[in-house]
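Please go through this protein, sequence plus structure tokens, and consider how the sequence yields the tokens. Keep your notes short.
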Amino acid sequence: MNWQIFLLISILCESFGRIVQRILLKDNQNNPIAFAICSQLLTGSLLLTVALLIGFKWPENLLSLAPNLILMSIFYGYLNIFAFQALKYTEASVFTILFTSRALIIIILAVILLHEPFSLKQAAGTILIVFSIVLISLKKEKIQFKKGELFSLLAAVAVAFGAINDTYILKRVDVISYSPFGFLLSGLFIWLINPKLTKPAFNIIKGKDFPKVALIGMIFGGAYLTYNLAYSWGNNAAQIGAISPVASVLTVIWAIMFLKERSKLLIKILASIVSFVGVLLVG
């Protein structure tokens, strides 16, 4: 199996996973953060099982990585808090378009913190991403960010900080062995700052929603694992980065097909295409 097949599986999993999240959270009376706890811990457990079967490698420099692992727990913990909250209150297509702003934030952080160059092509991509955000947020000639939209943008900020932090960690660990901890530690962090959600989380595990939570865990675990395998087999970050944004366009299409999210249909399609082109340029 070549790296393109792994990447295709990852893209399909990520895009469809957002649809399953929206189906689970829409009109559900359970706390979305309780779902985040269950989903993260379940996904991390699945990935840990895979890592143990493949051959788990414990990092020799664990102590020096401790500050970054703590930051990783915080960033990805808040990513999931914001993402689950966003998909509770807004459409999957809107979330996906706004979530592409993570590429813009990563570029800004990389320039400031990693001193990476910023080209005219990336500047053009940045303008397109901002334009797509304006398009999807424009309501009656005014830009409005309601609760769902704000959570979507906060999720983009959190994942951008997490990605920058990962640039340090991933140079020093085995990728397959590291992948479970992004989910396990962030799940434990969410649980730690929300101890009152212990009972609701256990109720979800024992209740009728657990199969959907398990499905989300398997989908996003598969997306993360196959993305890493694509990188390991292809060793071509530029190509992978250029193809991955297809997931955002697919999510909008799935949302129209399966969730009947047809309000502002043309604007959503235009915004998703503009954001897709923007991500290609900044990547």
About this structure: The chain has one domain: 3-282. The longest helix spans residues 62-89.
